[in-house]
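Changelog entry

Holo records now carry the ligand SMILES as an explicit input line rather than a separate metadata file. Below, a converted record for zinc ion, shown in the new format.
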Amino acid sequence: MSDNAIFPGDKIASIEEYEAGYNTFDDGDMVRAATVGQKDINKTTRTVSINHPKMLSIPKDGDIIIGTVVAVMSSMIAVSIDYINGKPTTSKVECICGTRNLRIRNVALVNDIVTLKILSHLNGTIHAGISEPELGVLFTKCRKCGGKVVTMRDAIKCTDCSWIDERKLSSNFGKSDFFNLRD
Ligand SMILES: [Zn+2]
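Structure line, unchanged by the conversion:
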């Protein structure tokens, strides 16, 4: 966080100048911060808000994220976001990604590392897509033995037990520098 960090209770504006926005309250005289964060003044609406660090790490539509698969369901996967546009985030925001239309047996497994594109925010849920070539699994293991896998045409093969499986692989699969994709 930068030097203009605000702490709860800090005076951020006079109520004659600005109305209380997000994460603020007005004490009858001053607008004060209700949370830790950074001041965000909107001169058009004449409101002042505090951007909480967690709000800053929610991805926007079109952002590319890298995250860890935390759940695999029949028609979607849930992913805990670790990087937004190449920048690390610690807030553990989750997104979901539909997998029904992919016709792949195991799109991704729990604990796989995947890269997704954020598509939309609906009812508080962040939806992401995986269909573009550079999107998909960046790191996975053998489903049978946990061994290392290598690509074999459209499939993956375990170097330990030779189990052949499928994933929706990213075109960057197997590249070690995937954490700097966007930089
Ligand atoms: Zn194996």
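Spot-checked after migration. The pocket of zinc ion is lined by residues 142, 144-145, 147, 158, 160-161, 163 (CB under 6 Å). The chain has two domains: 5-56, 64-174.
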